[in-house]
Each structure stands twice: as C-alpha cells, then as structure tokens.
Amino acid sequence: MKKKGYSYMEGMPNRASAVIEFTVRRILLSRSTVLAILILLIPTFIALYIVYDTPDDAQWLEAFSDFTLLFYLQFFVILYCLIYGSNQVHEEVDKRTITYLTTRGMKRGEILIYKYIGMVISVYLMLSLTIVIMYLVLGLMAPVTEILSSLDVLANVLFITFLGTMVYGAMFVMLGTLIRWPLMVGLLYTFIWEMIGSTFLGNIRQVTVMYYLRSIMYWEVGVGEIITFKEMLSTSFSIFFLLFLTGIFLLIGLISIRRKDLN
Amino acid sequence: MGENIIEVRNVSKFYGSVLGLNEITVDFGKGITGILGPNGAGKSTLIKIIMGQIKPNMGKVTVMGEKVWNNPKVNRMLGYCPEQETFYDRMSGLEFVTYCTRLNGYSRKEAMKMAKEVIATVDLAKDMNRTISGYSKGMKQRIKIAQSLVHDPDILVMDEPLAGTDPVGRIQIMNLMYKLRDQGKHILISSHILHEVERMTENIVLINKGKLLAQGNLHEIRDSMDRFPLTVRVTCEKRKKLASILSGMENVISISYEGGSNVLLVRTGDPNMFYEGFQEIVLKEGIRIVSIDCPDDNLDAIFKYLVD
Predict the structure, then answer these.
(1) Contact criterion met (CB < 8 Å) for B103 and A108
(2) For residue B109, what is the nearest residue in chain A, using CA coordinates?
(3) What is the SS3 assignment for B62?
(4) A212 touches A194 (CB < 8 A)
(5) What is the nearest CA distance from A210 to chain B, expressed in angstroms?
(6) From the CA of A38, how many Å to the nearest CA of chain B?
(7) A14 and B100: CB-CB below 8 Å?
(8) Which of A8, A17, A96 is opposite residue B72, by nearest beta carbon?
(9) In this complex, which of A1, A99, A106 lies closest to B72 when CB atoms are compared?
(10) Which chain A residues have a beta carbon less than 8 Å from that of B54?
(11) Residues in chain B closer than 8 A to A15 (CB atoms)
(12) Mean of the per-residue pLDDT values for chain A?
C-alpha cells in the first residue's frame, strides 16, 4: 500500500486545529451566543445598581468578588459548561454528522479531546469577557490606581473561572458520551448536588466540585467565608484535586466513546 | 494477503433484541462489488461495521488485513459516502469538503485546494460556495461523494449513492464509478435498486434479513441455482414444431408464445440439461434459430427468487 497524505502523528495538529476551530466557531457564532452573553451581563447590571445606589469607594471590589462567586462560580460556569459540554458529542450523534468524524482517520479519543478543548475555549471566552466587563464597569467609581492595584483579584477570579470551566466542562462532556439525556441528568446534578449539596449538607459537600473551587476563592480572593466553611482546603491541594478530577472525567469519556457505536 | 480487500468473518450484530446481521461471512474483492438487498436487509449495518462505526457483537472484519475498530490507518484507506443526508448547518459545499479533508490531517490550504479539485470532479464547481441546505437531492449526493473521494482513498464504500438522483445525475455518478474503478479503486456500492448495480458490476453480495443469501459473479450465482426456473426466449422458424418437440422434454415446465412473432418462451427447471437437449433437437430437426436469450438471467429475477 503506497503512503498517502500525512502519517497519523503528522496529521494530528491539523486535525486538532480543524475540530477545535470548528467547535469554537459553532459555539461563538451561533445565534444564541448574543443572548448567552447578555445573560452573563445581568450580574454586572445588578452590581451596578447596588454599588451606585450606595456609593462607597471601597465597596466596588467587594461587590465584584461577591458577585463572581455568587453568579459566576456557583451558577454560570456550571450552567454554561452543562449546556455546551453535554452537547458536544451528543449533538453530532443526534444529527448523525458524527459519521464524518469517525470515518476519517482520527481516533475516537481525539474527537472527544478536541471537542472538549474547543468547548472550554469558547465558554471561557464568554465568561472571562463578561467578568472583565463587570470589573471595569464596577471599577469606574474607583480611582484608576485602585483598579490597577486590584488586578490580582481579577486575575485570581479569571483563573478560578478557568479551573471551573475545565473541570465542569470535562464532567459534562463525559456525561454527553455516557447517557442519552445528558442535559436532563446534568441539570439534576447541577441543581440538586452542586448547588444545594455544596451549601447545606455536612461533609457531603466535599464530594462536590464547588467545594474545591470555593476553597480556592476563599484563600485567593477572600470571599466565601459567609457560608459555614469550617475547614477550607489549601489552594494547591484544591487545584491538584480539580486537575485530577478533570483527568478522571476525560478518561471515563474516552473509554466510553471508544466502546460506543457511533453512526 | 490474497485477492480480498475486505474480509468479514462470522459477523453478527444485535440492536437490543433485534438481529441486524446474522453470522455473515463474506469477502470483497477488487473492482466494484454491489451489496444488494431490500430496505432493512442489513446492508447499512454491514457497511457501518466495515467502516468501524459500529462494533459487531461477534465476528471479525479486516480491511487490507487490518482490523477496523478504532484504527485510523484503515480509515485513511477508506472513503465513505453515508446513506443519510446529514450535513452541518450553514456550511457551503466547499467549506464542508474542506473541513472533512482537514479531518484527514491536511492543512487548511492543502485541504481547500484538494476540495476544489474534487468538487470539480463531481461537477459542483459552480455551486461550491452555496450552502448545502440549498442544494438539490442529487447535488447533496454528489457533495457526499466528493468528501469520500477527497483524500484519494484506495477503497470507496458507498451506501446508496444513487438514491435521490435524477437520470442524468445517475449516469454521471455511474460514469464516475467506472472512472474510479479504472484508476484502480475498489468500490463497494450498496443499493436496493437492483438494475442500478447490475449496470455497474457483476460482482454482487445479496443480503436479506441480516443473512447472506449469495455472493460472487451474477451469472455464476445464477448457474449455481440448479432448481431456479429459467425462462429462455427462442426466436426461430417453425416455432409450433419446435414447441411440440420441446414440450416432450423432461426439464421443460411450460411453453408459451410471445405475441404474433416467432418467439417461444420456454420455462425450464434445469437450464443446463435444457441447453444440452435443445442443441441436439435443433440440429436433428434442422430448425433455424434466429436468436436465444434469457430474460431471467438478471439480478431482479435472481433476487426475487432468493428472497422469496
């Protein structure tokens, strides 16, 4: 058999860029993206109302930290990862376009990983863009020097948001390969387990992803103590554990997609 | 590796409690091979197993000696034109084929160039920048064929490639198949429309209800079916005399006249014996035969017989 085109390894970067670019374009250029971004801006408007209603120079950063924890970390990160993550493989299977991916000299695991990367990039772009907007809008009432000196808070929030997108993204991409109704199961998981479980239940909260994200938020941004966290985990342990979870979720997803009939 | 391009060994596939394929063993050789069977026979299941999209519950499939499941090496040798008419929303023909080419590991620039070339081959160059959703059924079929050809695979697997095409489009696709065959490609074509395949190849695989009914050369299959009644059309002089003599032959089931011409339709239960005896009778009686042919010696007749 004569050799044609690139070898498997040589062609990998081109395949990766094709799938990642395709995924990013489909998420960011879809008609619903404008609506998704507008929804992400709602906390900014609420924060604006509260802060400008009771003007206080010191309040803006506190409002920013509280709102990113309350809205982004506890809600938007999970919800957006759920919507876009669970859909990645599932939509291609549903629309039967998965055929074009599985029959072109690409390992099934590659499909999952590239789609995951594309999804994380897209969701993180939406989240981080609106977080930066909130930071700048709230900072308008403070001196420029304070906005600049508080950039480390913004950086930490963006980093934690990235970690959250990574781990929840992996979880829901995995779910999309495992079950028939990933969105439904994901919603139940999100609202029952992550949101309620991480807040009200005793030690069970340690089995939620949110617990580790909030630990980092507590140490690095200084918010989250209002909820009775008796023992916050260290930042490094939390980061390590979240990375470990991401790996486990992706591994389960890889095993699942490798065994599945995809047509 | 022998002459076989694809080897399927004892393959069974269940969909829950429904049996999709039942211990099929079949070899696909060089050139064009037709996979035939009515809708729901298991053709697409067999093709999807060959393409590595679904995994058989039992058995083994190899392409050029390589296992197919999750094997990119095999996928690169294969070009697949799926039956279903599914495409990505809002993509033009060129974008679609370019994307598919990039999935084979080509850079964007190379993929674009290759896509344009192959789109021209399937005669869609004028429409390549239009969105696929605006294409006619035949155009959609051709863009699917384009994506299956673009990486220059050695083996093409076409699931109902002629479905939905108009007569002109059909001829274009058939001519393309001949051209690809002449270039040394090996082609598997599934269809439930028998005469389409018959025009393209004599190598066939017949499937029904997940079972293999027959495989091989169309005429060899026909010859191997000793008990399959065959109609022989004889155009001759003295047809009444010939009819009277033939009616005495053991293997003749019935004789009828066709219209007002000198044509006899003889139905025989044993074609080989009939031909031997017929030759002797004609020579002995000095009856001049103008022509002799078998209207039953085609795929439709064979298929009907096997399926029934």
Answers:
(1) no
(2) A14
(3) strand
(4) no
(5) 35
(6) 24
(7) no
(8) A8
(9) A106
(10) 261-263
(11) 102-105
(12) 87
Q: How far is CA B22 from CA A38, B15, B45, B69, B273, in A?
A: 55, 12, 11, 19, 35
Both tokens of B28, joined, read 């696909």
The answer, yes or no, to whether residue A2 has pLDDT greater than 60, is no
AA letter at B34: G
Q: What is the CB neighbour count within 10 angstroms for residue B1?
A: 10
CA distance A57 to A141: 7
**Closest residue on chain B to A95 (Cα):** B86
A163, A244 in Cβ contact below 8 A?
no
pLDDT, position A1: 43
Angle at A178 (CA atoms; ends A174, A179), nearest 5 degrees: 120
The answer, yes or no, to whether ipTM is higher than 0.90 is no
Name B216's Cβ contacts closer than 8 Å, sequence gap at least 6.
Answer: B203, B204
Write out pLDDT tens, residues B122-144: 989 999 999 999 998 889 999 99
For strand B32-36 and strand B18-28, is the pairing parallel, antiparallel, or unpaired?
unpaired
**Are B97 and B119 in contact, with CB atoms under 8 Å apart?**
yes
Tokens of A249: 């979720």
Percent of chain A whose pLDDT exceeds 90: 49
